[in-house]
Amino acid sequence: MPYIRAFMFRLYIVAFVWLFACSARPKSEEISGNLFEAGKRLAQLADRSITEASGIVASRKHAGMLWVHNDSGDSARLFLVDTLGRTRMVVWLKGARNRDWEDIAAGPGPVAGKSYLYVADIGDNHARHHEKVIYRFEEPDFEEGEITLTQFDSIRLVYPDGPRDAETLLTDPDTRDLFILTKRERKLHLYRLAWPYGTGTIHTAVLEADDITFNLLGEPRGYHPLYYNQVTGGDISPDGSEILIKDYSTVYYWKRRPRQSLAEVLRTRPFLLPYRPEARGEAIAFSADGKGYYTLSEEADGIVPYLIFYARKKSVTQP
User: For residue 194, what is the domain's CATH number?
Assistant: First the structure.
C-alpha cells in the first residue's frame, strides 16, 4: 500500500504541473506554429571531435555552411560544417584559450563590408571569473582542411555588478553593439558592450536590464538558482529584425521594430516556436538567407547530435 500511495502522489503532482502549464500557456503560443515548420533532421555530425557543440552561427561568407564550436575542455578551434553534417574546415586561434566558450555570433566589425565572427568565452558555472573575453576575427576564406589564425582581437570585459554565468552572445547588425544574456538566475541580466570596443583595455559592460525572464509559468516551487532560466543560446537575424533565444526545452522568438532596444524587446511576451527535443540542446542560429533557423545539441548519453532545421513557412504574415 505505501508503494501505491507514493505512486498516486507522484501521479497527482505530474497531473497538477501539466494542468498548470496548460492553463499558463501564453496566447502568443497559439499562433506560433504559423511562423515556422516543424524541425527536420538534416544530418548527424560526422566529425567525432564535435562532442559539446555549444555555439552555432550561419556563415555570411560561405553559403549553406555553419560555424560550430565546442564547450569548455576543447582547444581554441572552430569547425565549418555543411548541412550534410560534414566538417569542411577547422580554424585554430593560436594563443587563444577555450576556458568556457559558450556562444558565437556573426556580424559587422571594424572594416565596412566585411563579415566578422565573435566567439564568447563567457561561461562561468560558479560565477568565479570576473574577466570575460570575446574573440573577434574576419571570417577566413575557405580552405579545405585546417588553418591557423595568429591575428585576431581579444575584447576583454567585466560586468559592473560582479561575475555571472552566461551562454548567450548577440551582435546587433545595425549598431555593432554586443549583448550578453546571463543564465541560472531568477531574473536574467542583459549587458551591452557599445561599439567601438577597443582591444587594449578592459571594458565595463553596461547593464541594460536586470529583470529579464523566460519562465512563462511563474517561479517554480522550491526555486533553486542553478535550475532556473537555463538560457543557452540566441541569435539576431542578419537584418536585425528578428531575435531567437533558447533554453533546454523552448525556443523564444520576437519581431523587432526599427530602433527598438534589445532590452525593450526581451521584456515583451515572446512567441514560442517549434522545437524538436534534443539530448542537450544549447545552440541556435538563423540561416543566413532568413529562410529558417538551426539547432544543434551537445552529445549526451552516447547520442550523436543531429543538425536540425526549422523552415520558415512561405505564406506567413509576420507578427
Answer: 2.115.10
